[in-house]
Structures are given as C-alpha cells and as structure tokens.
Amino acid sequence: MKLSILGSSSSSNCYVLHNDKEALIIEAGVTIQNVKQALDFKISKVVGCFVTHEHSDHSKYVEQYLKASIDVMSSKGTIDNIVIKGNRKPLAIDKYKTLQYGGFKVYAFDTQHDCQEPIGFLINHEEIGTLLFATDTYYLKHTFSNLTNIMIECNYSNSILDENVKNGTVNYMRRKRVKQSHMSLQTLKQTLQANDLSKVNNIILLHLSKENGDENLFKDEIEKLTGCKVTIAKKGIEIIINKTPF
Ligand SMILES: [Zn+2]
Ligand SMILES: [Zn+2]
Fold this sequence. Notes:
24% of the residues lie in helices and 28% in strands. The protein is of the alpha/beta class. It has a single domain (2-240), classed as Metallo-beta-lactamase, Chain A, CATH 3.60.15. The strands form 2 sheets. Strands 6-5-4-3-2-1-14 form a 7-stranded mixed β-sheet. Strands 7-8-9-10-11-12-13 form a 7-stranded mixed β-sheet, with helices on one face. α1 links the parallel β3 and β4 (46-50). α7 packs parallel to α8 (215-226). 46% of the residues are buried. Residues 53, 55, 113, 136 line the site of one zinc ion.
C-alpha cells in the first residue's frame, strides 16, 4: 500500500492510502485536483475521505470532494462546524465502532484539541495491518493494541517553544494555545511508550511546526526511543507501508 502525503502542516493536511484497487483519504486540506493527480485521476477507487476536525487546514476542500462524489466522514460536532453549500453533505460517523469502507476498517476515537469534536482513527487493512492516525491532539487518552504503522503529530519541542517565547518569535498567548492543542515531542515520547510497539514498522511524524519544531532532532529522538523507521511527513513524499517490514 502506498501512502501519498499531499500536505502535513498548519497550512494544509491530506494523506492518501492507495493500492491498484482502492484508496482512502485522510483530511481534506488540499484541492481535489491535488488528490486526483496523486491517484492518476482514478478517483472512482476512493472509498471515502475521513476528516479529524473542522480547522481549515484539515477541512477547507470538503465541498470539492463531495462534488467529486467522494463520501466525506467525520464526527457530528465537526460536520456541524463545516459550512457546506451544496446538497451533498458529509456523513457523521459513530465513534468507538468499527466501520467498513472497501477493504478498510475504520474506527474513530476522541482526541484533545481546541475545536468541537476532534477525532483520530485506527485504520485496518489486510495489506497494512492496523494504522494509528492522530493529529492535532495535545495528548491521547487511549492506548491501542496490534499497531503495525503509526501516523502521529509531533508539532513542537517544549524547549524550542520556550526559547521562541524568550526571543519574541512566539507570544505568550500563542504558547498557551499550542500547549493546549498540539502534541509536543515530550508528550509523543510518553504516548509511544504507553503503547505496544513490538509490531510497528513505520512511525510517520505529522504536522511539525515551522517555528517550534526541529525535524532532524524529532526523527533522531523517536528513532532512538523506538527502534522503528521514522519518517517526517512532508508534502510530496510517498511511502510504502505494509503489515510486515518487507
Ligand atoms: Zn492542523
Ligand atoms: Zn487543528
């Protein structure tokens, strides 16, 4: 299974999992044209698009996806906060229930962010095993079993953020907001340690802050901690993810 990263930052987020037969989209923060290009214009193979929350870097193009006949799913709270003018509306999904879309089983759970009803996903497919997807959450109250791949936010480091407040790059209010809405390197480490990583192949770090992050440091530290292959999510990259390492 291929993972195409079409955006991963506070300006736009979109991830596409796809093989020859089917595709699943996570987040609608890039145009439908970008999605079409990533799929060589075979968008009829899309089984659905899942959105974590209403912030525009994740939901800006929901209406375009709906117009292209793609089903868009999220929590009820998120959908209530996305303005859709057309007749086709996103579908509210139940959390803590496994739902099937093509060969993908999707299970949504609560995350912790400054919006109405943010969610994360466990996505299971016979080719990839169980993938954890969690972004824009300052911590995760759940732990998960049988994970084979992890896509998770690593937005900032406490020390870089504090340094930026000291030198005036980031104001105090913004520091407060970041801490109450995004995941730090330090919290990510605790989160990973709370889960069984024995079957995990890939850890993909999402939504890094330009000012308050350091991709080399984050990659190094998470590699050292976990022994897993760590990739920094960046617009335009493609990763092969499978159930087993090879
Ligand atoms: Zn975001
Ligand atoms: Zn957000």
